[in-house]
């Protein structure tokens, strides 16, 4: 009996040792996989945010704070994410060219809309191209009312700008993607200024936004989808009397209501598109950032690009 009990004890000790060894091995493999799969962004990339001690917080609650960007009151070209505890915890960063290029490598990005969308494209390309490359394409990029395509061969990025000033144009573009079963990895859309100036009918604008939402919901899109919001319009600075009359503060407010009521935006109604809040960004940058009360300095659209890039990292 003693020998049997001793043998049983030895057997139990052996099992415990095997279990402990297995647990240690599992922990080592888990740590190694975690280290290899979580991307590293150097702390030097952060701008106005304390250096992170861990990888980027991928909690979806950070989506609520993506547009919480502030401007230096003494320098309109300097911006940073707000320093509230919730925003700091999200570890948003202004990405350097190398990191933005890594993030967009091998992607197909489509930006569709009016002149605001074109300025967004300028800022996006300015982040992944050097100054000489930007100068070489500037003439083609600024051809009015035309599409534009650029391939950044070094990183395999294909960028399409589609001139689509009306909501019907955007809906047609989405339908074309669905018909061809060919979807971009990132889709940024925005419109409203042309409708406001040439049609001045907020209810009709809302109908088209709802139509766009219906085309997107339940579609084959697995892309990251964004809505490029309209800028703050400074009525007294608009450069024609027609614009000052048709794009009054009351009309702008009516158009804004239609955007929110359409349930197009993820932040307002759980829609398919995440808002890049150019209105907030341009308002915070201020009067000194625009010469015509509608089109803003590149730093505003650059900030919108970084909001988008940080969304891709969540």
Write the layout of secondary structure elements.
Elements: H1 2-37, E1 69-72, E2 75-81, H2 85-90, H3 97-104, E3 108-113, H4 115-128, H5 131-141, E4 148-152, E5 157-163, H6 167-180, E6 186-190, H7 193-198, H8 202-216, E7 224-228, H9 241-246, H10 249-261, E8 274-276, H11 278-285, H12 298-312
Parallel strand pairs: 3-5, 3-6, 6-7, 7-8
Antiparallel strand pairs: 1-2, 4-5
* CATH hierarchy: architecture of the largest domain: 3-Layer(aba) Sandwich
Q: Write down the Rg.
A: 25 Å
Reading off the top of the CATH hierarchy, the class of the largest domain is best stated as Alpha Beta
Spatial separation of the terminal alpha carbons: 63 Å
Strand content: 5-15%
The overall number of domains is: 2
Largest sheet strand order: 4-5-3-6-7-8
Question: Mean pLDDT, nearest integer?
Answer: 84
CATH fold node name of the largest domain: Rossmann fold
Give the helix tally.
12
Overall 3D form:
globular
Task: Tally the beta strands.
Answer: 8
CATH superfamily of the largest domain, please? Answer: SGNH hydrolase
Largest sheet: 6 strands, mixed
Poorly predicted runs: 1-58
Briefly note the structural class of the backbone.
Answer: alpha/beta
Helix-strand sequence: HEEHHEHHEEHEHHEHHEHH
Helical residues, percent = 40-55%
């Amino acid at each position: 009996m003693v020998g049997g009990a001793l043998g049983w004890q030895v057997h139990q000790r052996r099992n415990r040792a095997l279990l402990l060894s297995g647990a240690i091995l599992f922990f080592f493999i888990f740590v190694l996989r975690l280290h290899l799969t979580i991307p590293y962004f150097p702390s030097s990339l952060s701008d106005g945010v304390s250096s992170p001690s861990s990888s980027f917080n991928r909690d979806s609650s950070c989506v609520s704070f993506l547009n919480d960007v502030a401007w230096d009151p003494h320098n309109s070209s300097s911006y940073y994410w707000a320093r509230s505890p919730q925003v700091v915890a999200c570890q948003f960063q202004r990405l350097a060219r190398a990191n933005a290029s890594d993030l967009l490598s091998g992607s197909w990005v489509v930006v569709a809309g009016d002149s605001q969308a074109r300025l967004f494209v300028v800022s996006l390309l300015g982040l992944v191209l050097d100054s000489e490359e930007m100068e070489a394409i500037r003439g083609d990029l600024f051809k009015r009312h035309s599409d534009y395509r650029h391939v950044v061969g070094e990183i395999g990025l294909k960028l399409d700008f589609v001139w689509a000033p009306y909501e019907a144009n955007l809906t047609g573009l989405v339908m074309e993607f669905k018909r061809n079963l060919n979807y971009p990895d990132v889709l940024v859309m925005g419109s409203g200024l042309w409708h406001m100036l040439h049609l001045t009918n907020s209810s009709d604008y809302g109908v088209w936004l709802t139509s766009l939402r219906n085309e997107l919901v339940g579609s084959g899109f697995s892309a990251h989808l964004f809505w490029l919001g309209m800028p703050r319009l400074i009525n007294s600075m608009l450069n024609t009397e027609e614009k000052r009359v048709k794009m009054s503060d009351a009309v702008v407010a009516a158009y804004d209501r239609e955007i929110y009521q359409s349930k197009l935006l993820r932040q307002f109604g759980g829609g398919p598109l995440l808002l890049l809040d150019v209105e907030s960004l341009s308002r915070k940058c201020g009067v000194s950032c625009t010469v015509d009360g509608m089109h803003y300095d590149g730093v505003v659209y650059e900030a919108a690009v970084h909001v988008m890039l940080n969304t891709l990292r969540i």
